[in-house]
Recover the amino acids of this structure.
């Protein structure tokens, strides 16, 4: 069922004249409704304005971009970083960069649409992906393969161990990873997956991300080597695009302590939820991540009748399979988790 709302959903959501507990969305740290975070952003909007529509390569440039990009690169452990106005644009930016005769693109199952162009083929399984790459590499003078994947695709086949990726001849492959659901949440200090993937020894590693989920800010980012990011900065795509709002970049720099506090609280809520789940639950989960996927529509309907709304819709299009997910946020209280798990126990005991 589609619900229309007029306010940003925090731990509660109001639909019509009725209040529900909300365990959905992607506001993992609950920053969007946090008064301290809002105050930082509002003060930066007063200083930097509501938007900046000029090119990053214009003759007048904000210093805040370089400062925040250096901060992000240091956080994730990459040599360099480039920012854009959204995570989707960051994914398309990277895909367009490799759209040439020097590269051959491959896609793992469940790769996000942000990484794809209209005619790109997504492999149905890891086995078909591996076979396609090996067949390509056996060709004489094979051009460099580029493999696109989501770090967290909610199937559990990638993060945290990336066992499927490890079976590929990575020393011959450029690996592009969308870490939108990981950065800000998983890894030391919320650094995401870049450092752990770097250790796998790919020919080249590029990570792109939305910061809207883990950082609560409308910003996209791309991480990689200094040489790679410098090359991306020289493209027409980058020069022609408006940047992220400078107020958002400034807020990113100023909210590190608050975000760490939120991450610690989120991990407590995740542990509380997992501890109280019945042993025979039907959820798919990933270590340290607040999203718990399931495929039982009856459970979704049952929870809604008990005044709890979870994520439940077809994604990325109406023809896609239904995505059902319970999402824990640092905004949730202990009693929220207690009520939710109590209902889940009752459901599975029926």
């Amino acid at each position: 069922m589609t619900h229309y709302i007029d306010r940003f959903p925090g731990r509660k959501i109001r639909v019509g004249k009725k209040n529900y507990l909300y365990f959905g969305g992607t506001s993992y740290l609950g920053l969007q409704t946090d008064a301290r975070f809002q105050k930082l952003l509002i003060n930066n909007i007063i200083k930097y304005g509501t938007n900046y529509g000029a090119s990053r390569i214009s003759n007048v440039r904000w210093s805040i971009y370089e400062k925040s990009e250096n901060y992000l690169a240091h956080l994730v452990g990459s040599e360099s970083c480039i920012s854009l106005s959204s995570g989707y644009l960051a994914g398309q930016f990277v895909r367009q960069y490799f759209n040439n005769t020097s590269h051959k693109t491959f896609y793992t199952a469940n790769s996000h649409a942000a990484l794809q162009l209209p005619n790109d083929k997504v492999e149905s399984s890891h086995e078909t992906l591996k076979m396609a790459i090996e067949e390509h590499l056996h060709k004489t003078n094979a051009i460099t393969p580029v493999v696109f994947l989501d770090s967290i695709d909610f199937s559990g086949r990638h993060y945290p161990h990336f066992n499927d990726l490890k079976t590929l001849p990575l020393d011959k492959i450029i690996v592009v990873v969308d870490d939108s659901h990981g950065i800000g949440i998983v890894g030391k200090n919320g650094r995401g997956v870049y450092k752990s993937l770097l250790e796998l020894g790919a020919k080249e590693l590029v990570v792109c991300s939305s910061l809207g989920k883990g950082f609560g800010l409308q910003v996209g980012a791309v991480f990689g080597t200094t040489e790679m990011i410098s090359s991306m900065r020289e493209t027409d795509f980058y020069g022609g695009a408006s940047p992220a709002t400078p107020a958002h970049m400034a807020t990113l720099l100023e909210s590190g302590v608050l975000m760490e506090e939120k991450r610690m609280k989120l991990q407590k809520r995740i542990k509380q939820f997992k501890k109280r789940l019945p042993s025979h639950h039907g959820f798919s989960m990933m270590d340290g991540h607040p999203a718990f996927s399931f495929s039982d529509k009856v459970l979704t309907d049952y929870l809604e009748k008990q005044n709890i709304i979870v994520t439940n819709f077809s994604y990325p299009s109406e023809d896609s399979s239904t995505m059902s997910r319970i999402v824990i946020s640092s905004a949730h209280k202990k009693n929220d988790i207690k009520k939710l798990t109590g209902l889940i126990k009752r459901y599975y005991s029926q």
About this structure: The longest strand covers residues 144-150. The first helix runs from residue 35 to 48. The chain is about 35% helix and 15% strand.
